[in-house]
Amino acid sequence: MATNNDKTPRNKKKRVKDDEGRMSLKEHLIEARNRLFKSLIALTLGTVAGFFIYDWLLELIIAPVQAAGGSVNFTAVMSPFDIMIKVALFVGILISSPVWLYQLWAFIVPGLKKNERRLSYSFVAISVPLFIGGVAMAYFVLPFALHFFISLAPENSENLININEYLPFIIRLLLAFGLAMLVPVLMVGLNMVGVLSAKVILKNWRITVFLIAVVAAMAAPGGDAITMFALAGPLFLTFAAATIFCYFNDKKRAKKQAAQDAENERLAKGDSSTIDAPSHIDEPNSQL
């Protein structure tokens, strides 16, 4: 009777990738499903935590309106509950950012080597502070835009802002700033693993500049020029810095590859020109 010595169950065998880490379409879909599931679990846990700081965070979001001379108004019976869910979900996105950022990176660049996995952790370690920093930067820019728009109201009028319109605008603005700050880090990360070259970035720089302007315009409330330039300015600077880094990294990689190719060619020539000398053991002993 034949016995099965394979201790690994058939239904639990890992998917085999080729040398370049490529997978079939079905395996890509399974990979995307698993990583999305992990991200949703982290998002759910972060959202639950968001309910505990809802009151404090809502006051923080409303504070710029009150400082500009306006007030936020709840116009429906279900508005407080709806706003609570949206605020908690926003907190969940922030808290779970280390998880979904890593899952996103691991899905974009699969089949990493050992040294490239360290780069993944470095990517997350840099991306999370930049994402949170972008959200914080948007919050500090927000009062300038609100003060401008509220100051346009007539002197004898009262500016009541609907919370159902104000909160989605705030969340969209904060997340747009945070996600936009991740683009340069993603560029550098893809360049480090050899996926994106500086040549490709420079070739498509017009498209990138246009997309940055579009993102800044969409995030700016009502086309506010102050908020738009406040977002576009850092993005242009970080994009330029990332492009310069990718350029010098490509030169360093090309120089290293050229040196390696020269060394391999030298070794190949040396092996072909070497003639094995006869061993002393094989030489006849003249004394015998």
From TrEMBL:
<feature type="transmembrane region" description="Helical">
    <location>
        <begin position="121"/>
        <end position="150"/>
    </location>
</feature>
<dbReference type="InterPro" id="IPR002033">
    <property type="entry name" value="TatC"/>
</dbReference>
<feature type="region of interest" description="Disordered">
    <location>
        <begin position="259"/>
        <end position="288"/>
    </location>
</feature>
<keyword id="KW-1003">Cell membrane</keyword>
<comment type="function">
    <text>Part of the twin-arginine translocation (Tat) system that transports large folded proteins containing a characteristic twin-arginine motif in their signal peptide across membranes. Together with TatB, TatC is part of a receptor directly interacting with Tat signal peptides.</text>
</comment>
<comment type="similarity">
    <text>Belongs to the TatC family.</text>
</comment>
<keyword id="KW-0653">Protein transport</keyword>
<protein>
    <recommendedName>
        <fullName>Sec-independent protein translocase protein TatC</fullName>
    </recommendedName>
</protein>
<feature type="compositionally biased region" description="Basic and acidic residues">
    <location>
        <begin position="279"/>
        <end position="288"/>
    </location>
</feature>
<feature type="transmembrane region" description="Helical">
    <location>
        <begin position="205"/>
        <end position="222"/>
    </location>
</feature>
<feature type="transmembrane region" description="Helical">
    <location>
        <begin position="170"/>
        <end position="193"/>
    </location>
</feature>
<keyword id="KW-0811">Translocation</keyword>
<feature type="transmembrane region" description="Helical">
    <location>
        <begin position="83"/>
        <end position="109"/>
    </location>
</feature>
<feature type="transmembrane region" description="Helical">
    <location>
        <begin position="228"/>
        <end position="248"/>
    </location>
</feature>
<keyword id="KW-0813">Transport</keyword>
<keyword id="KW-0472">Membrane</keyword>
<dbReference type="Pfam" id="PF00902">
    <property type="entry name" value="TatC"/>
</dbReference>
<feature type="transmembrane region" description="Helical">
    <location>
        <begin position="40"/>
        <end position="63"/>
    </location>
</feature>
<keyword id="KW-1133">Transmembrane helix</keyword>
<comment type="subunit">
    <text>The Tat system comprises two distinct complexes: a TatABC complex, containing multiple copies of TatA, TatB and TatC subunits, and a separate TatA complex, containing only TatA subunits. Substrates initially bind to the TatABC complex, which probably triggers association of the separate TatA complex to form the active translocon.</text>
</comment>
<feature type="region of interest" description="Disordered">
    <location>
        <begin position="1"/>
        <end position="20"/>
    </location>
</feature>
<keyword id="KW-0812">Transmembrane</keyword>
